[in-house]
UniProtKB/TrEMBL annotation:
It is an enzyme of class 1 (oxidoreductase). It holds the Pfam family ADH_zinc_N. This is Prostaglandin reductase 1. One of its GO terms (cellular component) is cytoplasm. Belongs to the NADP-dependent oxidoreductase L4BD family. Residues 18-327 form the Enoyl reductase (ER) domain. It is found in: Cytoplasm. The keyword Translocase does not apply. It comes from Hippocampus comes. InterPro entries: ADH-like_C (IPR013149), ADH_N_2 (IPR041694), ER (IPR020843), GroES-like_sf (IPR011032), MDR_fam (IPR045010), NAD(P)-bd_dom_sf (IPR036291), PTGR1 (IPR014190). GO terms for biological process: prostaglandin metabolic process. Gene3D superfamilies: Medium-chain alcohol dehydrogenases, catalytic domain, NAD(P)-binding Rossmann-like Domain.
Length: 329
């Protein structure tokens, strides 16, 4: 018998979450039956979508949604032998019994000198999101100017670096001076702290006086309205996320984008990486290749201890992470 710890949604929260909205529970897991495996979590992902998802798709008492890199510690399923590493959608749990249907083996030949936690970040879902946003949605071309917001995070930092690899001019915004310095290290041409600039409009104009061909949108809300007004005619916008609205207690209204979109003849498309699932194995190989060649830098913000999942989640929503937010069990 294994005692598993889980974090459950104790209470539906309005606005910014607090520690008491989550509850740590213990349960005894049954031995795996034929076809099942027992997993032990090594790293857990801390993602923005957990916030809106908990509101629209979860009941009080549900285990918090999430992915993790886990090790198979008992196996009655030949596809997942003991010692194998998998990405599991088991949620905020230390141990999980799974029939294998929700498991994805970590990429074969994962290099020994690359932390497995990157399977939740640069060589995982956020990296794939950046890649498809740049290549499939924006179809970014050499010489174009790209704006990325939340640029020092898991998705934004990969999107910006990919754009540099493609020969683009890249402007990034982030919420601290340290993050701005990080963006410069990554090769961004211009970067600014959106919390301290006197005028967002002026900062965007100064960074790209001729406007933006493409916008990798992670933030939404008022940032989005200001940025949209600085797109070039026929500009393209990939709507990846809207984190500035996830804790809203009331739905935000206008300014409405239609007039700007008509006058500038913009194209705007929302997306999730799951649309291109058949391409994932090849895309992950490309991301790992760039990492190993030193073309892609990866930073993680690691919080130690499963007991700190809520703190890490709230910290990410406050912007404490540079790079991918991870909890190491
Ligand atoms: N469509 C898809 O398939 C996917 C979409 N996403 C979306 O991409 C975005 C980035 O995700 P991810 O890279 O994982 O997260 P990050 O690693 O970027 O972490 C979140 C960051 O968002 C920023 N942030 C928080 N609140 C605000 C706010 N009110 N205004 C502006 N910025 C804020 C903070 O950085 P700062 O200090 O700069 O404010 C924080 O560090 C999110 O919107 C997420 O929902 C992510 C994965 C998949
Ligand atoms: C729920 C709001 C999502 C905001 C954007 C975002 O961060 C999306 C992330 C997805 C990522 O591609 C991997 C996922 O599992 C994320 C969440 C998908 C939620 C889909 C909800 C659809 C629904 O049930 O209506």
């Amino acid at each position: 018998m294994v005692r598993a710890q889980t974090w459950i949604l104790a209470k539906h929260f309005n606005g910014f979450p607090k520690e008491s909205d989550f509850q740590l529970k213990e349960e005894e897991l049954p031995e795996p039956k034929a076809g099942e495996v027992l997993l032990e979590a090594l790293f857990l992902s801390v993602d923005p979508y957990m916030r809106p998802f908990s509101r629209v798709r979860m009941k009080e008492g549900d285990v918090m949604i999430g992915t993790q890199v886990a090790k198979v510690v008992q196996s009655r399923n030949a596809a997942f032998p003991v010692g194998a590493h998998v990405v599991s959608r088991g949620g905020w749990r230390t141990h999980t019994v799974s029939d294998g249907s929700d498991l994805v083996p970590v990429m074969p030949d994962w290099p020994r000198d690359v932390s497995l936690s990157l399977a939740l970040g640069t060589v995982g879902m956020p990296g794939l999101t950046a890649l498809y946003g740049i290549e499939e949605v924006l179809e970014l071309k050499s010489g174009e100017t790209l704006l990325v917001n939340a640029a020092a995070g898991a998705v934004g930092s990969v999107a910006g670096q990919m754009a540099k690899m493609k020969g683009c001019r890249v402007v990034g915004s982030a919420g601290s001076d340290a993050k701005v310095a990080f963006l410069k290290e990554l090769g961004f041409d211009e970067a600014f702290n959106y919390k301290t600039v006197a005028s967002l409009e002026e900062a965007l104009k100064k960074a790209a006086p001729d406007g933006y061909d493409c916008f990798f949108e992670n933030v939404g809300g008022p940032f989005s309205s200001v940025a949209m007004s600085q797109m070039k005619d026929f500009g393209r916008i990939a709507v990846c996320g809207s984190i500035s609205t996830y804790n809203d207690t009331e739905v935000q209204t206008g300014p409405y984008p239609q007039m700007t979109m008509i006058v500038k003849q913009l194209k705007m498309e929302g997306f999730m990486q799951s649309r291109w699932e058949p391409k994932h194995p090849e895309s992950l190989r490309r991301l790992m290749g760039w990492l190993k060649e030193g073309k892609l830098q990866s930073r993680e913000h690691i919080t130690k201890g499963f007991e700190n999942m809520p703190a890490a989640f709230m910290g990410m929503l406050r912007g404490e992470n540079t790079g991918k937010a991870i909890v190491e069990v």
